Amino acid sequence: MNMTATTPTWPETSPRQFLVSAAVLWLALYWALIPASEALVAALPVDRARQLGGALQFFFYDTPKVLLLLTGIVFVMGMVNSAFTPERTRVLLAGRTEGVANVMAAGLGIVTPFCSCSAVPLFIGFVQAGVPLGVTFSFLIAAPMVNEVALTLLFGLFGWRIALLYLGLGLSVAIVAGWVIGRLRMESSLQDWVRDMPRTVAQAGEIRLTLAERVEAGFAAVREIVGKVWPYVMAGIAIGAVIHGYVPEAFMASVMGREAWWSVPLAVLAGVPMYSNAAGVIPVVQALLAKGAALGTVLAFMMSVTALSLPEIVILRKVLKARLIATFVSVVAAGILLVGYVFNAVL
Amino acid sequence: MKHIKVLGIGCSNCKNTIKLIDAIAREKGTEIELEKVEDIQAIMGYGIMSTPGVVIDGQVVHAGGVPSRQKIEEWLG
How many domains does chain A have? Predict the structure, then answer.
């Protein structure tokens, strides 16, 4: 069967018109959500003020809201990401001096499409082209930590203040941790075969995409990302709904409250093995926050889930000697701990 | 016969790429030899920065993400 001869679809022939219509439809759906979910729960034979009613309201409102937000933002980010490739990012970073380059690397980490399974080829590609080690780490820390899925869920469930706070703090951790690793001069702790690889000159082809191709990239991102995370989001919101409805107020205060000093390191430790479920973790965490967990502890947990992942550490072990892996993990963990403690102290 | 290598360290996108190429080759009845390259040093030898990568008869034709059905059909065409 030959698929190349299909007639062009509407988004392909008039992408501008398609985008405007899609945006209008999206906004209309978003505004209709609260009345729709209230009507739905009102129609169910449960009392809204009761535990089950509260839990159902939370589930029926938050699930469509978060999935709608996620689809919209992932689509837009897919269009933006299509202009950035790892090869182009490498050209922008190669040969720059540290400091400014750390800031750039962390920023580019947000917009460059990145999958943790590509961490190793990317790492080697950067180092081979003369991107300083610390700058490479700034990128590698920011890319998974400050991503559109985490930011969207934070925005949808916590509001824009917390989402911005997470964005700012995540970038700061990536910039400072990368800079510190750069200062430690650990180039000798790369695996020997990586150090001995021939140097390359960073180059990248010009990318010229039409609007229709960008729209197609947006669709591809939605298929790939939303298609993968929606079960985790649903599961997370379902667990969050149960916590909202049934766990007593202030229950979490003794375990994850700001008086419990040990809760921050515990949150960081607990986050390390949870990488793949970042999307499902946020709704649960939001429910815990409502039951008295401290914001600093919650932010530290979130950052640990996204920035420190066990599979990524295992993969990086192939290119880094144990000493550098240990340094990377401890510097990032220290940064996250600091964020957690500062927030618990200030807020 | 085309010799196709899929470069990747065993992530889900790499497995999906292999499945998709295999399925399309069967559909079209094109005979191919499909090989999985999981050794990181071998992968880096092709100079790609994101996986999965696809190499056909020694030429890198794709890097990063699962290739589209349309692209694969062109390769096998």
Answer: 1
Contact of A145 with A336, CB cutoff 8 Å: no
Residue pair A296/A347 in contact (Cβ under 8 Å)? The answer is yes
User: Which of B9, B16, B49 is the best mutation test for A, with the most CBs of A within 10 A?
Assistant: B49
Q: How many CB atoms lie under 10 A from the CB of residue A224?
A: 18
Q: What is the pLDDT of residues B25-67, one digit of tens each?
A: 888 888 888 888 888 888 888 878 888 889 988 888 888 778 8
A1 part of a folded domain: no
Instruction: List, in order of start, the domains of chain B with CATH numbers.
Output: 2-76 (3.40.30.10)
Tell whether A2 is covered by a domain: no
Q: Which of residues 9-68 of B touch A (CB under 8 A)?
A: 9-11, 13-14, 27, 40-41, 43-44, 47-51, 64-66, 68
A4 with B9: Cβ contact below 8 A: no
Q: What is the pTM of this model?
A: 0.82
